[in-house]
Amino acid sequence: MKIDFEHFSTRVDEPASFRELRLEIEEFHHEYCNSLDSGRVMEWPDYFTADALYRITAKENAAAGMPVGLVYCEGRGMLRDRAKAVAETLMHAPRYLLHSVTNTRVISSAEGRIMAQSNYLLYQTLVEGPTTLLQAGRYFDTFVREAGRLKLKVRECVYDTELIANDIVYPV
Amino acid sequence: MYSNETVLGQAGAHPKERNTRELVWPEEGLQTIPDWVYTDQSVYDREVERIFHGPSWNFVGLEAEVSEPGDYKRSYVGPTPVVVTRAEDGSINVFENRCRHRGAEFCRSPRGNAKELVCPYHQWSYDLKGNLQGVPFKRGVNKMGGMPKDFRNEEHGLRKLRVAVLHGVIFASFSDSVEPIESYLGEEMLVDFETVFKDRKLKVLGHYRNELPGNWKLYFENLRDPYHATLLHAFLVNFGLVVAGSKSVMAVDPIGRHGSMGSAKPENLSFVLDSATAAEMRSFTEGTSLEDPRLIEYVREFESTWTVTMQTLWPNLVVQRELNTMGVRHIIPNGPHSMIMVWTMFGYEGDSEEMQRHRLRQGNLMGPSGFLGVEDNEAIRFVQEGLRRSPTDQAVLKLGGDTEGSDTTLITESAIRSMYRYYRETMDF
Asked: Per CATH, is B65-162 categorized as 3.40.50.720?
């Protein structure tokens, strides 16, 4: 899939016209991040539609139109498989993760699809270690509504932090 | 060494990290590995000199990454930055990323296309083969200054490395004496290598990069260690991908420096694990199934006994063929306690859209977020931290007794012993 950087990066002339929607999306981010930061990874797939696409990839890949993902999930089934593996069987040292999501921009809202972009900072703390910035990136999101509630149809996490500190265990 | 910088256990906090001991191999021979192999700076320095800068072939890229004349990319031979180019005549060239003038590492973009390479400091320009072309004000200005009359551009080009390209895979060497690439790899290793690369046009799907807080040799050992497959990797066991006793091989080349781990996924996924074997595997959870089983489907596209081959080609290349998801991993040593890994994932020209998506989905198995990849990276961190911080100073390598070389059982360390036999000879330990 190709991220339409043109579309996402175009200046929004009237951001105030999307003010309520932006607030709603920020509230969505807060709940999404709370589920992950509280260690409730089994809640993570619930934020997505059944046919959702979720990808985490480096900026160099997104910029070149390369399709690979560090994580690449087609459909909520794959999201659930990943959540379950991470929660129950994946061997990894214990850690805390904390998201900071800022700079939410609503790009467009048309035909039931809302396109939005946000910055994220993901902090990781390993046992007896300092808190480090694990990943700095941007969410490129397409939301739809199901029963009035926002759900992610597409979330692409495009990270600047191309040199990953060992591994990314939990969803971003 | 940033991901190794813990608060407790800072680099240098334990005496083992200083070069205060004699580098004498313990009397247990190949049934042990002394910690200093992983922690000692002088050992690392000798490795760079004798291995990475010595008579070896180092992976630096794929032809598919520099497919057009003028294409270039940054890469590394050992810890040394190099530039890989395709010149106008189609040839692949590799040279030091260091301006011959005052030493600037001048090529800063990870990849690109150019007609010439210019160092921004004094604008010395080089052609795509690394030859010095232009020196501004070479003859001075107003008859003052400039280079001496006997200055020859030909004597001041970028330092060139020897290049070998085999089935679209690019290798480079600082050595004039290393044997041709086919004999370097050897017949046995060429079989699995050719399965992936021969007569195929690669399509690059993208890259990952990560820094593993461990000695580069630990990664080779991990892929020469079939023992851990069913014990560490719950995913392999729970979904029947590899079971202790299923068809597999750990093959090494005759001198022990290259290896290839192969396994064949059972055709019938509803396998029955005997209770004795199940009891040995703490990671096994009966009755797990994937909501989306497409992840572990195998599309038969290779003429090979194996559905998975993981090749480790000395000293810096891993070739991954994991069912239908393929990639190369370039290991860049970064001091004794760290390595950088650059992953290039690929499919083939002519893959249908559905096949490409299958490869991308299956890619979730490997990589810095992979179901298998994460666990190896974590284990490597644990080992390096344990080695650095404990007075006990050698490993136990007795699985399989004192056997060396290839084996068809997973429950052996014979391939690791072979690797260290070769290592000790190369390093004079």
From this structure: no
The helices-and-strands tally (H runs, E runs) of chain A is 4, 7
- CA closest to A166 among chain B residues: B212
Q: Does pLDDT of B265 surpass 90? A: no
Average pLDDT of chain A? 96
Q: What is the pTM of this model?
A: 0.95
Domain definitions of chain B by residue range? 65-162, 182-427
Does B182-427 match B65-162 at the fold level?
A: no
State whether residue B79 is helix, strand or coil.
coil
| Assigned CATH for B182-427 | 3.90.380.10
- The CA-CA-CA angle for residues B401, B403, B409, to 5°, reads 85
Residues of B in contact with A83 (CB under 8 A): none
User: Listing from the earlier edge strand, what are the strands of the sheet with B259-263?
Assistant: A163-165, B202-212, B339-348, B325-333, B317-322, B308-313, B259-263, B248-252
What are the pLDDT digits (tens) for A65-77?
A: 999 999 999 999 9
Assign a CATH topology to domain A5-159: Nuclear Transport Factor 2; Chain: A, (3.10.450)
What pLDDT shows up at residue B306?
A: 94
Q: Which of B6, B295, B368 sits opposite A70 (nearest CB)?
A: B368
Q: Which of A77, A129, A130 sits opposite B291 (nearest CB)?
A: A77
Least-confidence region, from A114-118, A148-152, B106-110, B271-275: B271-275
Residues of B in contact with A66 (CB under 8 A): 204-207
Residue B375 with chain A: CB contacts under 8 Å = 90-92
Q: How confident is the model at residue B270 (pLDDT cuts 50, 70, 90)?
A: very low
CB contact under 8 A, B374 and A167: yes
